[in-house]
């Protein structure tokens, strides 16, 4: 009986970690309720539609099919057409190179997951 309860508890804990730690949030969801996500860490995935930067800093816009969002990076920017998974903090009222953006993500890290030819 004791072994069974340990096994069930371990299985439940593993499932909880899998479901909360691996998921991405849809960009459309962040944009539709920015107050809920403000100053929270999120993970999004999409295709880079625009990219700009100088040296190791800059920004890029990603689109996951539900919306587009600006990502601000201090680690370099992926090129247009790259597929990326981004972890970062949602911010609002961001101004980049004289242009205002309502909601953006300050990148903690990104990982290239593929390449989609632009077009």
Q: What's the layout of helices and strands?
A:
Elements: H1 2-21, H2 27-32, H3 34-37, E1 41-54, E2 57-63, E3 68-73, E4 82-96, E5 99-115
Parallel strand pairs: 3-5
Antiparallel strand pairs: 1-2, 1-4, 2-3, 4-5
Structural class: alpha+beta
Please mark out the parts with pLDDT under 50 across 5 or more consecutive residues, or reply none. Answer: 15-21
- Per DSSP E runs of 2 or more residues, the count of β-strands stands at 5
The average pLDDT is: 83
Order of helices and strands: HHHEEEEE
Radius of gyration: 17 Å
Strand order of the largest sheet: 1-2-3-5-4
User: What is the number of domains?
Assistant: 1
Search tags:
single chain, 119 residues, alpha+beta, OB fold (Dihydrolipoamide Acetyltransferase, E2P), five-stranded mixed β-barrel, 3 helices, 50% strand, globular
Summarize the structure.
The chain is α+β, with helices and mostly antiparallel strands. It has 3 helices and 5 strands; from the N terminus they run αααβββββ. It has one domain: Nucleic acid-binding proteins (OB fold (Dihydrolipoamide Acetyltransferase, E2P)).
Description:
The protein has a five-stranded mixed beta barrel with strand order 1-2-3-5-4. The chain contains three helices and five strands, in the order αααβββββ. Helices cover 25% and strands 50% of the residues. The radius of gyration is 17 Å and the shape is globular. It has a single domain, classed as Beta Barrel (OB fold (Dihydrolipoamide Acetyltransferase, E2P)). With 119 residues, the chain is of the alpha+beta class. The chain starts with a helix and ends with a strand. 22% of the residues are buried.
């Amino acid at each position: 009986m004791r072994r069974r309860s340990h096994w069930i508890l371990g299985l439940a804990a593993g499932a909880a970690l899998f479901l909360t730690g691996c998921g991405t949030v849809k960009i459309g969801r962040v944009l539709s309720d920015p107050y809920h996500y403000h100053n929270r860490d999120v993970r999004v995935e999409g295709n880079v539609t625009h990219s700009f930067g100088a040296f190791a800093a800059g920004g890029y816009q990603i689109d996951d099919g539900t919306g587009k969002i600006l990502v601000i990076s201090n680690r370099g920017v992926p090129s247009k057409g790259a597929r990326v998974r981004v972890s970062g903090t949602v911010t609002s009222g961001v101004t980049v190179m004289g242009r205002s953006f309502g909601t953006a993500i300050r990148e903690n890290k990104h990982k290239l997951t593929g390449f989609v030819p632009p077009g």
